[in-house]
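Before the break, one more example. Copy the sequence into your notebook; we will annotate it together after we see the structure.
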Amino acid sequence: MKKITIFLFLFVSTLANAQSFTLSGKVVDENNDFLPGATILVKESKKGTSTDFDGQFSVNLSKGKYTIQVSFIGYKSVSKEVSLTKNDEIEFSLLPDSTVLEEVLVSAVRVKANSPVTHSNLSKKEIAKRNLGQDIPILLNYLPSVTTSSDAGAGVGYTYIRVRGSDGSRVNVTVNGIPYNDAESQGSFWVNMGDFASSTESLQLQRGVGTSTNGSGAFGASLNILTDAISEEAGGEISNSFGSYGTRKHTAKFTTGKVNDHFEFAGRLSNVYSDGYIDRAFTDLKSYFLQASYVDENTLVKALAFSGKEYTYQAWFGLTAEELKEDRKQNPYTYDNETDNYQQDHYQLHWNEKLNKNWSTNLGLNYTRGKGYFEQFKGEESAADFNNLIEEDSDVIVRRWLDNHFYVANFNATYKNDEIEIIGGMSYSNYTNDHYGEVIWGSDLSDGTTIRDQYYFSDAKKTDYSSFVKTTYKVTDQLTAFVDLQGRFVTYKTKGLTSDRDAIDVNSNFNFFNPKLGFTYALNETNSFYASYAKANREPNRNDFEVGTTQHESLDDYELGWRLKNENIKLSTNVYYMNYKNQLVLTGALNDVGSPIRATSGKSYRLGLEVDADIRISDQFSMRPNVAISSNKNVDFNAPINGALINLGNTPISNSPDIIAGNAFVFQPLKNLQFSLLSKYVGEQYMGNLGGAIVNEPSVLYSEISTNNEKLKSYFTSDFNVVYELETTKIFKSIVFSALINNIFDTKYVDRGYYYTYDDTWSVAGETTTIDGAGYYPQATRNFLVGVTLKF
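Here is what the structure looks like once it is written out:
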């Protein structure tokens, strides 16, 4: 009987200890306003959740003692210890964190977790795991609806990103709210931002039109980059990584921490080098980043200077199908100095002032100086193409220059109370650029020609003014409305000659009104739904004007989404319909500097489903799958074929795969050790807008060439990432070891290409036939990167 009594006592005690209790609470700021989307972490169990729209949260735990940590962007993290023996409640009040600049520099162009805008965030911690020398687009490769590529094949140098099939010139990029896209080409040249990931605090990628931003209109996505936050304590790090194809990265960082509680100075110096997977396609990137900050209770002033200098060997034009089959690593360029040389210097000043508990303001100023050239050898050229500086059929070496200045001024004011937040802002930019080409050598120069004589010149000026008002209003406890109204006014002028010595004389004005409207409905603590509509308009870029396109393009973006958040699953699902008018789609062809040529497609659309999840299977194991399934069509597309304009019906939009999927399996057996298997699948895609349409008349031959050469095959790749942090007690705070094996299954794939057509007249029969061809960019097979970071 005594044994039975002891057994029952132990059994009841075990049940009592194993009983699950609910710890609930709320998270507010210093003004007692709710903080929706705050992160709740139970350190002992690695369980986590987030607050709902009313700042409420709940988590189920067994009996015991726990440390509850709460964090929210722009606020200091807070931890509390609780001893749980019954259902209990707790409240957290967070204070603004002057060391985090989310609310200061990017609040006008970013959205919060509960916004009716489809988006993904990437933190500094996540970026650091794979930051071994590859450029920012490659680090974003595993986000939903994203595809990336590089000219040299190894992810260093000229790299590219597409979102929902839209190329980089349609992805608006801002750095601390300052536009980064080149004003004329509208592209983002990541080669000028070597190792910028090492100075990045966080990233937010908004898919679709997103919220109003500064600079060129977002037609596929917008990427908001926030640079390093202020550090409370002095420190630094030295990072070195090495890998395949001679790739190496050397980074040194420092910070003084807060001096006299108000001042901080920090900086970074980097060099990234790679021989490239493609022969001779080397990349040499030198960069620095400096910041000086002043902060007190109500004021934050931050001055930044950063620069990138690049020296790369050209691999812009890819390979023909025959060259790809013969040797996928070969580079058709053979001239020793067929290189690109460019330097870009950025200077930013940001001043944020908190006037009272409701009002705050932000002023941002920027000056960017860019200058550089690429050098190219041309054989047996026409004298007329070089302003008769050479004799007919002379070989020639030229340098083609860009020389530009970019000024930006942003101002934002925010009013916020318990029910409403209003952000009003304006942005003005002024861009000037000189385009010119020099003859630096010729096998047979004309009489009177001297080295560096110019054979073409054009100047350009572009001004861009925009203003917006964004309002978030809490209609009820469950329903939140969002209204965003933007006016954008653009003037573009250029006069002179193109590199082909064709006249370019543009004087165009564009006035755009871009309204946006959305609603978020919180069904309960774990489920919320959103719906939004956004209008966007966009002016042509310089290349479009060169080929005679002057019509602006318009987009109506409809988004419908569902978000689920509980202790083990975070799920974001959305359906989008992007309806274009006069969309400038990539023809597939390139111009003579490797830039894509675009053409107006009339009516077109993108319809898709995106699913993004973060699933915690156990305390050590999680997975993060995402998939995007879409249909991307030109409606009643017309194309010139064999001298006639042919209606091809509905054809796929170029470079827009119907399926993109990714996944990350993450295993963390120890607090400081993590293994990740990252996988990516990209479905087949067309490189041109003819879309393999079969044209039986008048040329069967053409249709066969088009169908075969215009399509890229689907591909599946996987990377393996290991990170281990060794905490030390002497000299260094910690030592971080990182390893990344890219393409572990050694897949031979091509992720990007181009397709061209032109009509030619047969000299014998006098008939017109369409000639076509294609170029391919092979990417690296299995390769590796390893690195060590010393933190002190």
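Confidence is low (pLDDT under 50) at residues 6-17, 694-705. The helical segments are 2-18, 102-105, 124-129, 136-139, 321-326, 542-546, 700-709. Try to locate both features in your own notes.
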